[in-house]
Amino acid sequence: MKKMLRSSTSQIPRPSELHLMDGLENLEQMKQQKAVVYRWRAMFGLVVLVLCVLAGYLLFQDAVDIIAWIKGFGMWSPVLFTIALSLAIVLLLPTPFVKVGAGAIFPFWIAVVVNFVASMVGGLIAFVLGRWLFRDSIKEAIQNDKRILNIESALDEDAMRISVLVRLSPILPDEWLNYIMSATPVSMRVFVLSN
Fold first, then answer.
1. Distances (CA, A) of 6 to 12, 16, 134
2. pLDDT tens-digit readout, 61-100
């Protein structure tokens, strides 16, 4: 019975096995060697794609209504938008379109402040959660990714400069970077300043 349980749980992919593949050859090799991991990735990608298309269709269809609904909160609308955006950052939801949407809803300077405050608060909450709750899981998930390991070794030498440069890079989304940096030796002060 124990062997049967072990074999069924070993078929579920670990986070460290779910890394991006580069090239068609690697994809074919993965299909042959790790069919279960490939199926999980394909299903996950399909679900994410369907959700994005559905959300985009619903949001753009009712964009005027959504803007009017958010503005309906009056002077509290920037505060509520900031809280929602911070929560989206913590939950690893893709936020670039939401940040751009702030410019459609609010005047320019209010949109800038809302985006800045939400990025700082959401990033700090994600960093703290990653540092004290999910650190071991994050380390296990990134242990096989050479890019992340290179960034981590560079962070040991010059944490502030590398933190700022990694934030400017389009390779890693900011939402993920908050959690990844929590598993590195970056201090909270350096994280806040680089954010």
1. 11, 18, 24
2. 777 777 788 888 888 999 999 999 999 999 888 888 888 8
